[in-house]
Design goal:
heterodimer; A: two-stranded antiparallel ribbon; 13% strand; elongated; B: Rossmann fold; 3 domains; 6-stranded mixed β-sheet; 17 helices
Chain lengths: 306, 414
């Protein structure tokens, strides 16, 4: 994988001597990582190995990669995977239209146009994988392969081949080798089993759903207006809801939505009335709504008296 | 207590020992990972139990399924949990992976039948129950007329419950010949087509134009590719289905190996068997499957099985637009209303639902079992699948867009 660049490596080592330092830095960019996640990202950074993040929807998998990029102050290249994604959309493609236009313009202006002009970087459409590999530094870029399980198995294999080499060969241009191999973060929703070849090459972290106090802290970071008591009350209510048998249990995103809604409404304390007004911010499925309403808004708001 | 001992251990030794223990317990563990772990332990010195736990888990585990085994091995190697608040907080959460079975190894993944040697005391895994072995060996006496028919013919129409071991083996070959293919859907990818029926593909046209002096002489048309829909098979392996389980597992195996289906079995809980069945030798695949699931021939919890399928897999995408085949006799312990609610959810996700009930072939059968009656309105096709011929009917029900013949259930559009 090429000669490792000692300078940036050393800088990373000094900035993040241990997982706690990384957790602190993540905290500074408003991402609260627990011990497990901080260790996982730390190892991804320092080993360095690609990391596969799994967890329920809305526990902050994508957000973790974004926060890592902010901490390192490097660009984040995000590739949203979907079924049928191919190299043209992930790696690079020649801009044929522009090439034709270039030829026509050259004819009109009677310029001389060389083939190598047409196949130069000017006519190359760089997609996220190539962008991440070409990133000039000084620190490695963060490459996020979001929802890799949605892509085809063949694409998965292709991507990994590429990342292991950290180099791309474009026949017309030659081989582009990464100066700073990107830090690769993959997320998966487990719609299918990932290929062994992929799981073998990644370190892995399962992000658990956080307890109420952490949700409250996250909410207060994201919704500056929300006061401490109401964030905690909303987080506790969400935790209570998750104990019900719901089709779509509310997650962190719902907690944030809810706190914002309560903030907009100027609510100071979560009570039955406030809950009645804001059901829609928390529960987004008719059956869930019916199940929660059966328990009553008062139960959700206060727990005890209802 | 372990703390002082840990500092004295060399990272490399520790890594190698832990990886070996994991490997014996059947939860992955490769030399490559041991190297990573040794590196990782240098980066994150294991000063506390929690940091050691996280480092080892992140590097060594490669999937959620392995977490219970990993936790058990870790506990066995480094002693039980002392009350490390953070660890317990992280793992005691409601949605922590398979929380009920944290302390011991409950699953013994395929191919690793032996008990892990590292287990000193409490965490000895129960040996996986054998599959429905020898079912139908002492079946009813054969009628004279069947004896005269050729063996294969007999296999075609005899109920699976009455087959002998040898015949089961032959049947497996027959089932392997069944073509299981799901109906197609339009994919997002396109392919060029000669006809002008498709959409004009500007990008490919422009590329082709480079050959003709940038004049688009040849217009390239594209039409969307067709792809088979996902096929999902859910098989009831409870006691009441025992006689048919073997034959159906063979169908599942054939579907996984040839049609890339997803396979699940359920009795009291749901187990995904796709991985265990994904090999071309049926005998080996079935042996692995037998070790993979643990509640063979238990009671049936139909609604629970469906719910955990939809929650953990179906809703995330496995069942969306898929053809879902359910093998069950509908004799369940749970409330029919629950079954109906879960079937309604599945109906909203799936493209088609096909219910295979081996008891349907019995003369005078009426779908009166509570679960079955509740589920039927949500099914697109209701087939018997009790014999080889009936399985051929199933194959055509899977393939067809329309429902299959007179066996069709009433269909309600929701």
């Amino acid at each position: 994988m090429g000669a490792p660049e000692e300078g940036p490596r050393e800088e990373l080592r000094q900035r993040f001597p241990d997982p706690a330092a990384l957790a602190g830095a993540l905290d500074d960019v408003d991402y609260l990582a627990d011990n497990g996640l901080a260790t996982a990202l730390f190892l991804a950074l320092r080993l360095p190995q690609p990391i596969l993040l799994e967890g329920e929807a809305g526990v902050g998998k994508t957000e973790a990669a974004k926060a890592l990029a902010r901490v390192l102050d490097t660009p984040l290249f995000r590739l949203q995977c979907y079924e049928g994604i191919d190299a043209g959309e992930a790696l690079y493609e020649w801009n044929h239209q522009r090439q034709l236009l270039g030829i026509r313009l050259a004819e009109m202006h009677e310029d001389s146009l060389d083939e190598s002009d047409l196949f130069s970087g000017r006519y190359l459409l760089r997609r996220p994988l190539l962008q991440a590999i070409e990133h000039p530094g000084p620190r490695p870029a963060v490459l996020l392969l979001d929802e890799i399980d949605r892509a085809d198995a063949e694409f998965e294999a292709f991507t990994f081949e590429l990342l292991a080499e950290a180099a791309v060969t474009i026949p017309e241009l030659g081989t582009i080798r990464a100066l700073h191999p990107p830090i690769v973060v993959l997320t998966s929703n487990r719609t299918r089993d990932l290929h062994d070849a992929l799981t073998r090459r990644c370190i892995y972290h399962w992000i658990d759903y956080p307890p109420a106090e952490r949700i409250a802290r996250i909410v207060r970071r994201k919704v500056p207006g929300s006061a401490a008591p109401i964030a905690l009350e909303a987080a506790a209510a969400i935790t209570r809801l998750r104990a019900l048998d719901l089709v779509k249990p509310p997650g962190i995103a719902e907690a944030i939505d809810w706190a914002s809604a309560l903030d907009v409404l100027g609510t100071e304390h979560l009570d039955a009335r406030a809950v009645e007004q804001t059901w829609g911010a928390v529960l987004k499925n008719r059956e869930d709504l019916a199940a929660a309403k059966e328990r009553g808004a008062a139960w959700l708001a206060g727990g005890g008296h209802g | 207590m372990a703390e002082t001992a840990l500092r004295r251990l060399e990272p490399a030794e520790l890594a190698a020992a832990l990886v070996a223990a994991l490997h014996r317990a059947g939860a992955g563990g490769s030399p490559e990972r041991a190297v990573w772990l040794a590196q990782a332990l240098r980066l994150v010195p294991p000063t506390t139990r929690a940091s050691l736990y996280w480092t080892c888990r992140i590097v060594l585990v490669s999937g959620k399924d392995q977490l219970p085994v990993f936790d058990a091995v870790f506990a066995a190697v480094f002693g039980e949990y002392d009350d490390d608040a953070e660890l317990m907080g992280a793992r005691g959460e409601k949605n922590a992976p398979q929380p009920a079975q944290r302390p011991g190894i409950r699953r013994t993944p395929a191919g690793e039948g032996a008990a892990p040697a590292v287990q000193p005391g409490p965490a000895a895994p129960p040996a996986p129950a054998p599959p429905a072995a020898g079912s139908g060996v002492e079946g009813p006496d054969r009628e004279a007329i069947l004896l005269t028919a050729s063996a294969e013919e007999r296999l075609h129409t005899t109920s699976f419950a009455e087959l002998t071991e040898d015949e089961q083996a032959q049947l497996r070959l027959l089932i392997g010949r069944l073509r299981l293919a799901a109906p197609v859907r339009q994919s997002r990818r396109t392919r060029p087509t000669a006809r002008t029926a498709g959409r004009l593909d500007l990008r490919r046209t422009a590329r082709a134009a480079r050959r003709t002096g940038s004049d688009p002489v040849r217009l390239v048309f594209a039409r969307r590719r067709r792809q088979p829909r996902r096929l999902v098979m859910l098989c009831d392996v409870s006691g009441s289905m025992e006689a048919f389980t073997r034959a159906y597992l063979t169908v599942l195996q054939a579907a996984v190996a040839s049609a890339k289906a997803e396979a699940f079995v359920f009795a009291t809980r749901l187990t995904r068997l796709t991985r265990q069945l994904a090999m071309h030798d049926p005998d080996q695949a079935l042996a692995r499957a037998a070790a993979g699931a643990e509640d063979w021939s238990g009671g049936t919890r139909l609604a629970d099985g469906l719910r955990s399928f939809i929650d953990a897999h179906g809703r995330r995408g496995t069942a969306r637009g898929a053809v879902v085949v359910i093998f069950s006799d509908g004799w369940a312990q749970d409330d029919p209303a629950d079954v109906a609610a879960q079937m309604a959810r599945l109906r909203r996700l799936a493209f088609r639902i096909i219910w295979v009930n081996p008891r349907k072939a019995a003369p005078g059968y009426q779908p009166l079992a509570g679960g079955m009656a509740a589920a039927l309105p949500f099914c697109d096709a209701f087939v018997s699948g009790h014999s080889y011929d009936a399985l051929a009917e199933l194959a055509s029900a899977i393939r067809s867009g329309a429902a299959a013949g007179p066996a069709t259930a009433t269909r309600r559009i929701l």
